[in-house]
Amino acid sequence: MQLVEGEKEVIIACVNEVLKEKEKTTENLIPILQNVQARLGYLPSLAMEMIAADLAVPAADVFGLATFYNQFRLSPPGKHQVKVCLGTACYMVGGKIALESFERRMEIREGETSVDRLYSLERVACVGCCTMAPVVVVDEVVEGKVTPTRVDGIMLALQENGDTKKSEMKTDLPDEGEGKNK
Amino acid sequence: MSDQITITIDGRQINVMPGLKLLWAALDNGIYIPHLCAIREEIRPNASCRLCFVEIEGSKHPVTSCTKTVEENMVVKTRSPRIDRLVKTAFELIISDHNLKCNECPANKNCVLQTIAKERGLRLKQKRFKSIVREFELDDSPEVFAFDRSRCVLCGQCIWADRVEAKVGAIGFTNRGIKRMVTTFKDLPLADSICTQCTLCVDACPVGALYYKKDRKEAGS
Amino acid sequence: MSNLTPLVSYEKLRSEAVLATNADAEKTRVLVGTATCGVAAGALQVKEDFIREIGAKGLDAEVIEVGCMGHCYAEPLAVIAKPGFPPICYGHLDNGLVHRLVEDFLAGDDPCYEYAMAALEPNDVFPTFAEFPRGVYEQKLILEQCGFIDARNIDSYLARDGYSALAQALEGEPQQVLAEIKQANLRGRGGAGFPAGLKWEACIKSGGEQIYVICNADEGDPGAFMDRSILESDPHLVLEGMILCAYAVGSGKGFLYIRAEYPRAVTHVQEAIDQARAKGLLGTKILGSDFSFDLEIFQGSGAFVCGEATALVNSMEGKMGMPESRPPRLAQKGYRGRPTVLNNVKTFAYVPLIIKNGADWFKAIGTPDSPGTAVFSLVGKVVNTGLVEVPMGTTLRQLIFDVGDGLPNGREFKAVQIGGPSGGCLPETALDVPIDFDSLQEAGAIMGSGGLVVMAQDDCMVAVARYFLEFTQHESCGKCTFCRLGTKQMLDILTDITQGKGDDQTLALLEELSEDVRDGSLCNLGRTAPNPVLTTLKYFRDEYEAHIKEGRCPALVCHDLILYYILPRKCSKLCNVCVGSCPTEAIFTREDGLKEINQEKCVKCDNCLKACPPEYTAVVKLSPPILPPEKERKN
Ligand SMILES: Cc1cc2nc3c(=O)[nH]c(=O)nc-3n(C[C@H](O)[C@H](O)[C@H](O)COP(=O)(O)O)c2cc1C
Ligand code: FES
């Protein structure tokens, strides 16, 4: 993938910093990946290569881990992250309906990021507030009892502050486009 | 040898070295047990293909013979209605995710799936389950061989060859569940990866997923 | 400190803690429940409101964050402890109610009993939770302090005799701890119910210099959250249990494997570890004894299968979370190839209580073979959702109808799902089964992780089975044939059934395949994945048959087998609500003024049905999806 100018330096600096903090053992592989993702929002392939080289493990293994665990993403997330809970309680009272409503409104499928990089949509299993089912997490804020009408409300709110944010953004990050498609 | 122990498989008494896994004890003595993923040298066997089930007297449940160490006076049956049913289902599940165009496959007549089918009277045709073979792009980037993932049974033999024998680390498993596959870093074509094209993986493949390109075969023979 | 005995060192810590916490005993305290469930319901806003209102009035009251009290149905919740009054719990708080409470109760002296849920201590004026009908059945051991202590302040735990079991144990021999746990017959609460004492003993027997102690807090069941609640609300209880275990087996190092999806739990546990270390309760020479032990958090990266013991270890070693065939067991060869104790959060939480009160006390609770209590997160179609703790042996009926107060809105009970994706669905006829490890297993379900979902007549059992299978299929690690491909084929068959496809062979094939996946899979994820299917096939076969033979979903759930219809005789021409509610503009007004649904455009989102005013209830679902004859539709 093409990295935007300056992005490469950011990645290198970030990975080096994380690697400096952690002892070089394969046991630290997952914590290192978690740390890098926490800072960059995703795991660029450059980062995976650097980590693999530093810990002397095959890059294919780092790639394997990154595609095995739900937590890791290989492409940058959207500006707004919507996670729809499909835990048992939420599923039973319409979590799927909420998910479908978001898919319709965002014009993407679960697990994808919209072309304009404004939204990404994910499903999660139980965020631990079953009593408010169906639950969605919008940019870390938990919303309970979400009906399709509420979905429209949430989208409206996101669009309003999303558009302002979009114009503030200097460059849209390009799509990594390789590897996993979870 | 005196330090050998005696076990009985299908009514036949055989002497084997202690510490050996039951699967190899049987195979070494000409008793066939279906298997795809087992590797003799591996200390903790994968036990992922689930084809090598046998019944052991005293065990309530069928046991995978690749993980079971032989024990003195062990009594083993390689066939029983229960075993046959499990092996049949495992086999049919595996071929539900395997490109069954045998006549187009370079491993035709030299394929472990065909051996298993023959030994156990199973059909290389899907009846019970839907075919769920995924679409993959053929990777024919290496010079002398190619990788057709629609034939891959995920036994892991090629990865063992790459890691332990060739010591390269070009390929590995990625993803989880039904999306699990054998691939390179970032899913690059093999020729663009760190693969040295030593072809040890091709020799290890029990089916026709990793195969020599035709011209090479002709040149070689 | 080293010349003091553990008990003396402990007593010093405890009295300091009592002083520190009692310093403001004379002060009014407001405890706001801010576990994840509370926060989701707006607890942080409630906390802010309290602080602002109290500040505005210039009152001398402290607002403290506490964990989950288990009454999640009434979140946001707060307890007000004002000297001279019993501590009183209020639910469903909002801005207005907070204002009212501060003005009338904190500033004035009116406890606003009309808004109170219960008092926390017996008194003459207001009933306590224990006096509720559910209180008769509930018995809180490991949840006792959840929601009532400040989880982020170790003094709060110490002041209530926390860590006294540890101090007491350090005065004696490690074997005594082991003997007590064995004697108590504490069975693992993470699923299988294996006796913890035997597991620990097996580790000791494997021997060697290093034994590891790991707490399994991966809690992957998509409908359960009690491990999270305990870690967020009372982390020191779990730490103390782990330290006691480490003492018993002679371990120097332990880990808590916590899901990354539980950030609050991670924060609270990390703070707890730091505070415990600072007080000499963790680290070298604990409480001045010769025993050293330290703890670290390992964050899971979101894979259900990592809850499985061998997969968890692989994941901690930096590999994919793939289960291994056993033996060897973890007790022989676990983390870093060393003997390893792996127990669930709840299992560890019982340990300090057993050491403090004795094995006989524990065995007096519950049933002879399953002593102690069972903790469930009660969700689904039930009035009192939340965390409950009842003695083992309580029946499902008591749990659902007495503790949970039955189903809401007069719904009729259909089934209860226990044990999450590995568990089973039990029907009405199984409601008198006592809750214990063995009885549940006999009935076809398992205690499992403790998720308990109540289902009503409007829940489709085929869809439920499909839901769980979709989950396990998605979470299968993909290593072994049966789990990777078998669950996928099962899911495809179930999907077909929810679409009305299939023939008289379909159910037989599904059953056969389920049994083979159960018998042939490598680990317990695959081995238990068929349980929801097998139990629904056993108890609700007629529902499967209705889907296949009649193309009908009796519960009116399966999308492909229903359609939405507006009853002309019930529709009011004057009302437009449904038209506005439709996200796809599928509803239009006919020439005669009645509303009709364009079936081509309808996405079956249920909005119109919910929107149609109760005086009309004109929107209905029909299954099989066949429109009534034209004539009827005309009027
Ligand atoms: C797929 C799978 C997921 C599991 N998830 C958990 C879990 O989230 N928490 C847990 O404590 N045990 C889980 N277990 C059970 C553990 O393997 C193990 O039995 C348990 O942690 C042992 O602790 P206990 O004896 O205290 O119950 C899971 C098992 C399987 C097969
Ligand atoms: S050879 Fe035993 S499971 Fe594959």
Please outline the helices and strands.
The complex is a heterotrimer of chains A (182), B (221) and C (635).
Chain A: H1 7-21, H2 29-40, H3 45-55, H4 59-68, E1 80-85, H5 88-92, H6 95-106, E2 119-124, E3 136-138, E4 141-143, H7 148-168
Parallel strand pairs in A: 1-2
Antiparallel strand pairs in A: 1-3, 3-4
Helix pairs in contact in A: 1-2, 1-3, 2-3, 3-4, 6-7
Chain B: E1 5-9, E2 12-16, H1 22-28, E3 53-56, E4 63-64, E5 75-77, H2 81-96, H3 112-120, E6 145-147, H4 157-165, E7 171-174, E8 181-184, H5 200-204, E9 210-212, H6 214-220
Parallel strand pairs in B: 1-5
Antiparallel strand pairs in B: 1-2, 3-4, 3-5, 6-9, 7-8
Helix pairs in contact in B: 2-3
Chain C: H1 6-22, E1 28-33, H2 36-40, H3 43-57, E2 61-66, E3 78-81, E4 88-90, H4 95-107, E5 116-119, H5 154-158, H6 164-171, H7 174-184, H8 196-206, E6 212-217, H9 226-233, H10 235-249, E7 253-259, H11 263-278, E8 294-300, H12 309-316, E9 340-344, H13 345-357, H14 359-363, E10 373-380, E11 386-391, H15 396-403, E12 413-418, E13 424-427, H16 437-443, E14 451-456, H17 461-475, H18 481-498, H19 506-520, H20 524-528, H21 531-539, H22 541-550, E15 563-566, H23 577-581, E16 587-589, E17 595-597, H24 607-611, E18 619-622, H25 630-634
Parallel strand pairs in C: 1-2, 6-7, 6-9, 7-8, 10-14
Antiparallel strand pairs in C: 1-3, 3-4, 4-5, 10-11, 12-13, 12-14, 15-18, 16-17
Helix pairs in contact in C: 1-6, 3-4, 6-10, 6-13, 7-8, 7-10, 9-10, 9-11, 10-13, 17-18, 18-19, 19-21
How do you describe this structure in short?
Chain B is α+β, with helices and mostly antiparallel strands.
